[in-house]
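User: Study the chain.
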Amino acid sequence: MELIGYPKTPTDLDAVFAALADPTRRAILSRLASGPASVNELAAPFDISQPAISKHLKVLERAGLVGRGVDEQRRPASLKAEKLADAVDWLTEFRG
């Protein structure tokens, strides 16, 4: 099936929707909407370990929703909204 007007493949959209399916990952994205944050900063409001937050960040990175900085000490995560826009565009097709 060709998605006219969509440069992204269905697999890309699948990864975005799979990442958004988890409430912790959605909360991480909400936090990153206000600016970059380290794993420690992202873990603070949750009752889960820093390694668990890192795993969530990896899922978000693979989906293209989060980027990581190059600061050796902090590696701050930041929101990459382009993939969210692709998902919104796809969903908009189904609004009446």
About this structure: Residues 10-91 form a domain with the Arc Repressor Mutant, subunit A fold (CATH 1.10.10.10).
